[in-house]
């Protein structure tokens, strides 16, 4: 048994917050991350603090009893790795809310986006039993792209696939995009979770991106790939002299790599 700060997942999560800050994607208190612990991981750490119960309505039933590592409200990702006890905690999800069982010292609490995280985990677990992670940040170029591109799932997916050959292999399920919405409330949580029933990535217009996956590395890799494509889009969309990758070429890539692209996007 160790302190929760010694869990591999907590260390990886703290490293990731710093990496994302270095990328320029988590200014000030931007961004939040959560990670569903396995039964094995739950047994690896001791609880030495008084549990704190916080009420929250409409908890998805498939999460009751699960443990979640999550970043704190107001945490600065630049500083998380040196202040894990206050900026990262573990909660146990209950029917009427959740109990803080480790971390969030100095009376801190989980991110304001916690409800979105819970609904997103719930939605992904329904379609993918290996699902574990939700990462949200303010990746720059994909946010820029929401000012110059149509905000439609299929059109945005097609544009991103067309920027880098590997995109269609990395996210054949495409991306979902939400119009601008207030963040932190139930509405954006529900809208995000709805998109996540058929893809792992959701773009929040004029705000940022959210990716899910079976590991922190996996979810972050999706964000890196989407943002790289968006960066190329932003640098070229108004000065192109070639047509870019065609539908036929994308289908050839899928054929070669045995990938099934989301329906209704390529002809
Ligand atoms: O946690 O990024 O969307 C701060 C945010 C809210
Ligand atoms: Zn945000």
TrEMBL record:
Residues 11-234 form the Class II aldolase/adducin N-terminal domain. InterPro entries: Aldolase_class_II_sugar_metab (IPR050197), Aldolase_II/adducin_N (IPR001303), Aldolase_II/adducin_N_sf (IPR036409). It comes from the Bacteria. One of its GO terms (cellular component) is cytosol. One of its GO terms (molecular function) is metal ion binding. Keywords: Lyase, Metal-binding. One of its GO terms (biological process) is pentose catabolic process. SUPFAM superfamilies: AraD/HMP-PK domain-like. This is Rhamnulose-1-phosphate aldolase. It comes from Tetragenococcus koreensis.
